[in-house]
């Protein structure tokens, strides 16, 4: 339904009360711009909530997920962003250790 060419992970935590406009401003602050057909993932400080902003070239889509037990596997704060594959995003959304997948992540 929504074409996604690249998936980006913003490592610094964000306030999960933030709506689509605030998260889009965060995308611009962290990544420089919101590129069409790119997905941007954010988590709260405890990594129990995940929000994904997708710019589809016309507008933005916002998806949210919350884990009731455990947390999302999140990179250490040493880096600011990371690029994920689709398989890694699928694992991340399920709360699985996505870094262990065979395809390496690109850390910036």
Compile the SSE list and pairings.
Layout: E1 6-10, H1 20-31, E2 38-43, E3 49-55, E4 60-66, E5 81-84, H2 86-93, E6 106-107
Parallel strand pairs: 1-2
Antiparallel strand pairs: 1-5, 2-3, 3-4, 5-6
Q: What sort of overall outline do the alpha carbons produce when their principal axes are compared?
A: globular
Helix residue percentage: 10-25%
Query: For the terminal residues, how far apart are their CA atoms?
Result: 29 Å
* Strand fraction: 25-35%
Number of beta-strand segments: 6
**Count of helix runs:** 2
The Rg value, from CA coordinates, equals 13 Å
Provide the structure class: alpha+beta
Low-confidence runs: none
The secondary-structure element order is: EHEEEEHE
Q: Mean pLDDT, as a whole number?
A: 87
Q: In what order do the strands lie side by side in the largest sheet?
A: 4-3-2-1-5-6
Strand count, sense and closure of the main sheet? 6 strands, mixed
Task: Provide key terms for this protein.
108 residues; Transposase_IS66_Orf2; 6 strands; alpha+beta; 29% strand; 2 helices; globular
């Amino acid at each position: 339904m929504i074409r996604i060419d690249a998936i980006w992970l913003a490592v610094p935590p964000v306030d999960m009360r933030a709506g689509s406009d605030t998260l889009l401003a965060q995308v611009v602050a962290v990544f420089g711009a919101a590129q069409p057909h790119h997905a941007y993932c954010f988590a709260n400080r405890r990594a129990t909530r995940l929000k994904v902003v997708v710019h589809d070239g016309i507008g933005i889509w916002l998806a949210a997920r919350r884990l009731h037990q455990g947390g999302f596997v999140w990179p250490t704060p040493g880096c600011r962003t990371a690029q994920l594959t689709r398989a890694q995003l699928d694992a991340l959304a399920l709360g699985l250790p996505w870094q262990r997948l065979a395809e390496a992540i690109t850390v910036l």
